[in-house]
Amino acid sequence: MTEFKDLLTFTNISFGVAVNSLLKMGLNIPLIQNEMAEMFHSDGVKGLMKDVGLEVGGSDVKSITEDFTKKIKEVGFCQRANIIEVSDSKVVLDLGECVLAPITKVLRGNDINYIPPCPMVAILYGAIEKNTGKTGSVEKAEWKPEENTTIFTINLEG
After folding, report:
1. pTM: predicted TM-score of the whole model, two decimal places
2. How far, rounded to the nearest angstrom, does the alpha carbon of residue 124 sit from its chain's CA centroid?
3. Digit-coded pLDDT (tens) for 58-78
4. Which CATH class is domain 4-157?
5. For residue 83, which of 97, 68, 98 has the smallest C-alpha distance?
């Protein structure tokens, strides 16, 4: 029987292979990030998101962000999910100790400024787009290795 650690490792490998494959095909990180955001909230995936406890609700940016941070910690995908700033045009989050941290480290290599597409952020701004009509993009992602965390700044329009 496969152990949880093996499933987690395989998930990290699969995500890394998918990201590298898309980058080699010429897609860029913002495009990949935006497509992930849309797919997490598509009809075909909604049921699976509900099954894992990540059906994000709310009617405005603040309530959606609060629901997201609560659920992402509850399900254990990120041990830390703190809202630093939230407004109708910007969300700044501290996401740390993520289940995908191992592959993020591999993809980053020695480039501390390289932040690959983040499914967790995509879940959040996909929910914001779906529930408010605002579109989002990651403006900045500041990696803090000493804390195993990234501070994401998401700009919102619409």
Report:
1. 0.92
2. 7
3. 999 999 999 999 999 999 999
4. alpha beta
5. 68
